[in-house]
């Protein structure tokens, strides 16, 4: 028997691959299948962002005189219906997993002590184990974090009502996404970022993100220092160059994730509790593997899935190494802000995104997004793409694959797109190819280089 601990993307993909290969697999899931991605991460953001974008679009229509009256959001109903959809998705995932030949044990707890495996404190014999226990939202050690009215992505669904004044602590993608969501749903949002807000994001996309977060008070280099209140949240205190306090009805902590590995001992771990693995997802103990968030950042669902598959393939005796290249990413605001960067040298070409599905009514605000490509000046190889549009994540997905396949703008310059598209990347390939040809022609033409004979 092979034991997989955790039913999130990494664990589920590992278990399914092993089950499909005819192996006896037991998947132990303490809570709900789907992991953080489905239950408190990606799908939760999708659900709430859809509502936020709808409210923003309604505002655009009202400003244009197309709609009259005030649309009222029933926030408790939004959370309730979101939960119903998540439940349906869990049913599908459970059915798919069992169909792969995997036994799923819900409500059970598992722990690992070196090579020894325990399920509900009963030791079991296992030829291999995959630890895919995921991560949890980080909660800083600050006064007031235990007050009613303090939430993380995992407890957000317990909000009784839409906060009138919400403080969000964090400066990364998750904080930005929640700031957009709650500001468009109707909350007054203050975001406290310990460092530069979205400091790791490409400057072009960062400028767009700040534009799309209009109405949010973003305070950079301003760490949350305490949550104020007696019986519940009443405000937040912050530090930085101008320390102070602000009122709040709720505080949302979006300061990162930490691996959930307290149930694992006897294997090598890193400083934050992440399980140390090699490129086969093998831990320091033979036949014990780890995948997904339990193995540390970057905490991305597609990489967790890949790691689960790598672990399973190596358990099956099929050598496979984890070596991701050109990984696309995105954050969801009014647009999807997507990117894939595989280098920083080259020629950058950029255009505003055209109006199209989901962005036509953004023209009056000048917020249709952008498209940027980075190409090698000699070969035309695609080195990076940055796109902002309602469907930019799809664009980044396929262009990242083009980067992995070493495609050049010469390969893509005859691309025929589906029209209309609301993204500004596809038109840049021919422009880039033409620019490289002209550059080479100027270099090779003796008339433009009189010193060459």
Automatic annotation (TrEMBL):
Pfam entry (one): Pyr_redox_2
InterPro entries assigned to the protein according to its UniProt record, in alphabetical order: FAD/NAD-bd_sf, FAD/NAD-binding_dom, FAD/NAD-linked_Rdtase_dimer_sf
Residues of the FAD/NAD(P)-binding domain: 2-308
Keyword tags: FAD, Flavoprotein
GO MF annotation list: oxidoreductase activity
The keyword Acetylation is assigned to this record: no
The keyword Flavoprotein is annotated on this UniProt entry: yes
Highest taxon listed in the record's lineage: Archaea
Annotated protein name in UniProt: NAD(P)/FAD-dependent oxidoreductase
């Amino acid at each position: 028997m092979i034991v997989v601990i955790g039913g999130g993307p990494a664990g589920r993909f590992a278990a399914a691959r092993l089950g499909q290969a005819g192996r006896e697999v037991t998947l132990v899931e303490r809570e709900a299948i789907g992991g953080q991605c489905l239950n408190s991460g990606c799908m939760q953001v999708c659900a709430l962002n859809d509502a936020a974008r709808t409210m923003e679009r309604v505002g655009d229509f009202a400003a244009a005189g197309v709609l009259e009256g005030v649309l009222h959001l029933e926030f408790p109903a939004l959370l309730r219906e979101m939960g119903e959809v998540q439940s349906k998705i869990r049913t599908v995932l459970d059915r798919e997993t069992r169909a792969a030949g995997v036994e799923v044990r819900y409500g059970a707890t598992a722990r690992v002590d070196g090579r020894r495996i325990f399920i509900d404190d009963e030791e079991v014999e296992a030829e291999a184990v995959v630890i895919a226990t995921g991560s949890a939202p980080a909660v800083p050690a600050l006064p007031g974090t235990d007050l009613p009215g303090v939430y993380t992505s995992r407890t957000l669904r317990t909000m009784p009502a839409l906060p009138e004044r919400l403080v969000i602590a964090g400066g990364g993608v998750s904080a930005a996404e929640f700031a957009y969501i709650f500001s468009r749903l109707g909350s007054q949002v203050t975001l406290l970022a310990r460092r530069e807000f979205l400091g790791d994001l490409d400057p072009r996309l960062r400028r767009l993100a700040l534009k799309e977060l209009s109405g949010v008070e973003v305070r950079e280099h301003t760490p949350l220092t305490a949550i104020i209140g007696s019986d519940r949240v009443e405000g937040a205190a912050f530090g930085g160059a101008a320390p102070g306090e602000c009122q709040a009805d709720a505080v949302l902590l979006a300061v990162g994730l930490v691996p959930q590995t307290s149930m694992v001992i006897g294997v090598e771990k890193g400083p934050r509790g992440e399980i140390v693995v090699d490129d086969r997802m093998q831990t320091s103990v033979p036949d014990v593997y780890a995948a997904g968030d339990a193995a540390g950042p970057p905490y991305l669902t597609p990489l967790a899935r890949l790691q689960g598959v790598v672990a399973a393939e190596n358990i099956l005796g099929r050598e496979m190494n984890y070596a991701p290249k050109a990984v696309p990413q995105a954050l969801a605001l009014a647009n999807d802000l997507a990117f894939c960067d595989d280098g920083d040298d080259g020629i950058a070409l950029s255009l505003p995104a055209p109006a199209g599905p989901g962005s036509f009514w953004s023209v009056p605000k000048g917020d249709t997004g952008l498209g940027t490509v980075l190409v090698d000046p000699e070969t035309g190889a695609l080195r990076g793409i940055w796109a902002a549009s309602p469907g930019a994540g799809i664009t980044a997905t396929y262009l990242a694959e083009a980067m992995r396949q070493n495609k050049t703008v010469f390969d893509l310059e005859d691309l025929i797109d589906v029209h209309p598209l609301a993204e500004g990347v596809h038109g840049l390939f021919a422009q880039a190819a033409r620019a490289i040809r002209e550059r080479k022609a100027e270099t090779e033409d003796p008339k433009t280089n009189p010193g060459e004979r």
